[in-house]
From TrEMBL:
<dbReference type="InterPro" id="IPR001538">
    <property type="entry name" value="Man6P_isomerase-2_C"/>
</dbReference>
<dbReference type="GO" id="GO:0005525">
    <property type="term" value="F:GTP binding"/>
</dbReference>
<keyword id="KW-0413">Isomerase</keyword>
<keyword id="KW-0547">Nucleotide-binding</keyword>
<feature type="domain" description="Mannose-6-phosphate isomerase type II C-terminal">
    <location>
        <begin position="370"/>
        <end position="483"/>
    </location>
</feature>
<protein>
    <recommendedName>
        <fullName>mannose-1-phosphate guanylyltransferase</fullName>
        <ecNumber>2.7.7.13</ecNumber>
    </recommendedName>
</protein>
<dbReference type="Pfam" id="PF01050">
    <property type="entry name" value="MannoseP_isomer"/>
</dbReference>
<dbReference type="Pfam" id="PF00483">
    <property type="entry name" value="NTP_transferase"/>
</dbReference>
<dbReference type="InterPro" id="IPR005835">
    <property type="entry name" value="NTP_transferase_dom"/>
</dbReference>
<dbReference type="InterPro" id="IPR049577">
    <property type="entry name" value="GMPP_N"/>
</dbReference>
<feature type="domain" description="MannoseP isomerase/GMP-like beta-helix">
    <location>
        <begin position="312"/>
        <end position="365"/>
    </location>
</feature>
<dbReference type="InterPro" id="IPR054566">
    <property type="entry name" value="ManC/GMP-like_b-helix"/>
</dbReference>
<keyword id="KW-0548">Nucleotidyltransferase</keyword>
<comment type="similarity">
    <text>Belongs to the mannose-6-phosphate isomerase type 2 family.</text>
</comment>
<dbReference type="GO" id="GO:0009298">
    <property type="term" value="P:GDP-mannose biosynthetic process"/>
</dbReference>
<dbReference type="InterPro" id="IPR029044">
    <property type="entry name" value="Nucleotide-diphossugar_trans"/>
</dbReference>
<feature type="region of interest" description="Disordered">
    <location>
        <begin position="1"/>
        <end position="21"/>
    </location>
</feature>
Length: 489
């Protein structure tokens, strides 16, 4: 049982229920978890709390008894990573809907609702962010049972988390009267924006205010009716984008023109705060949006001094700190209440109390055109990944890993030549009109302007060292002639 992976016990029965379709939204960049989370590979694709990534944990929570295959709405650039991570936990039948541009949560959920409603408008959507954490999955599934019952009755249901501290990083829901005949379901008095510290403390003292989890449970037809009522322009644009969508391999691409015209608005503003059908199920199952490093400290296993560590870390006289490294030995001495995060190309040191402000650092990096704001030295591609090792005047060195059965595009470069040295596996290289097998400890030279392709015909990954030399070494110096992944850049 999936419930046993993250929590305790089996999931509650949902016999005779209509399809419950998990809808996973995977559009965020998670900039407050920089330097690990970046636009090219955001936090939902990282293993931050368990052996699974946040996306995988979210998908596995959705595999309760009676629940259909998930629908994932995501950035087109992340489609292969998402498909691979889902396959990695045994989910092979997900529907992955690609957004041509980011338009916030309301259009994303509407797109999923239209797609699901084509076959079953009575299906209950269970909408979740790809990057949240749940510590007690059994309690979540019990709460889900109550939410589904309310959704079948026509309500737009959200989960409200019991507040345990005066949190300023979350929105709040004021809990109203109990709904007749619906155990554990309450009316929503109001949604409240993220408060300042004094107001958050007042909410905690007063009681009756819940953290807004951002999870929704609603019939597809109900959601679309409310969207048409409150945001008719959005409804029309997304409906057209779904009708004109195209199939690309195992993915469904929304029509770019139609979807781009949709208003950029969250589901809270579009529907939740305006509908007269809003309901809330209170819960206490260890939810967190994993939105900052101090949140990971809260969720992590602490040593006797209150520290949470990950990776090759050495501490001396350190207390109440979060220290993470993805490779480099990170030694910390004589500090308290810090966040220290080291990646291959960046180091963050911050007061844990200022963890929410990391987003401001990322904004400043972008203003200064620093590539570290959005990209890692390790870059994932549908065929595998590459890692920048070193660079200098007119040269660059990379490590390239190509997974079994995969191949790069047929391409050429106008400004650089390349030397490839295979260090593991066997590669099939197209160079001009010839095809060459390059084995371990062998190399091949690709002159500037030559048409070439790298393939892995074997059953184990191919690893090679690439040395580029030329007047310009940017990734945009690629002219593709054929690509099995339908990329244009």
């Amino acid at each position: 049982m999936v419930g046993d992976r993250d929590g305790t016990g089996d999931s509650p029965e949902q016999e005779g229920a209509p399809d419950i379709v998990p809808v996973i939204l995977s559009g965020g960049a998670g900039s407050r978890l920089w330097p690990v989370s970046r636009g090219s590979f955001p936090k939902q694709f990282w293993s931050l709390l368990t052996d699974f990534t946040l996306l995988q944990d979210t998908a596995l929570r959705g595999q309760a008894r009676g629940v259909a295959a998930p629908v994932v709405v995501c950035n087109a650039e992340h489609r292969f990573v998402i498909a691979e991570q889902l396959r990695g936990v045994g989910i092979h039948d997900a529907r992955i809907i690609l957004e041509p541009v980011g338009r916030n949560s309301a259009p994303a959920i509407a797109a999923a609702a239209f797609v699901v409603a084509e076959h079953n408008p009575d299906a209950v959507l269970w909408v979740m962010a790809a990057d949240a954490a749940i510590q007690d999955v059994y309690k979540l599934h019990v709460a889900l049972e109550h939410a589904v019952a309310a959704a079948r009755a026509g309500y737009v249901v959200t989960f409200g988390m019991t507040a345990t501290r005066p949190e300023t990083g979350y929105g709040y829901i004021e809990q109203g009267e109990a709904l007749a005949g619906m155990p554990e379901v309450y009316a929503v008095t109001q949604f409240v924006e993220k408060p300042d510290k004094d107001k958050a403390a007042a909410f905690l003292a007063q009681g009756g205010y819940l953290w807004n989890s951002g999870m929704f449970v609603v019939r597809a037809a109900t959601f679309l009716a409310e969207m048409q009522r409150y945001e008719p322009d959005l409804y029309a644009c997304v409906e057209e984008a779904v009708q004109k969508r195209k199939t690309d391999m195992d993915f469904e691409r929304l029509d770019p023109d139609s979807f781009s015209r949709s208003p950029d608005i969250s589901v809270d503003y579009a529907v939740a705060e305006r509908t007269d059908r809003a309901a809330v199920v209170p819960g206490s199952f260890g939810w967190s949006d994993v939105g900052s490093w101090d949140a990971l400290w809260e969720l992590g296993h602490k040593d006797a001094q209150g520290n949470v560590i990950h990776g090759n870390v050495l501490l001396e006289d350190v207390a109440r700190s979060y220290v993470r490294t993805d490779g480099l030995l990170t030694a910390v001495l004589g500090v308290d209440n810090l966040v220290v995060v080291a990646t291959q190309d960046a180091v963050l040191v911050a007061s844990k109390d200022r963890a929410q402000d990391v987003k401001t650092l990322v904004q400043n990096l972008k203003k200064n055109n620093m590539p570290e704001a959005d990209t890692h030295r390790l870059t994932y591609r549908p065929w595998g990944h590459y890692e920048a090792l070193t660079a200098g005047h007119r040269f660059q060195v990379k490590k390239i890993v190509v997974q079994p059965g995969q191949k790069l595009s047929l391409q050429k470069h106008y400004h650089r030549a390349e030397h490839w040295v295979v260090v593991e596996g066997t590669a099939l290289v197209t160079r001009g009109v010839e095809q060459v097998i390059v084995r371990e400890n062998e190399s091949i030279y690709l002159p500037l302007g030559s048409l070439h392709r790298l393939e892995n015909p074997g059953c184990m990954p191919v690893t090679l060292i690439e040395v580029q030399s030329g007047s310009y070494l940017g990734e945009d110096d690629i002219v593709r002639f054929d690509d099995i992944y339908s990329r244009t850049k």
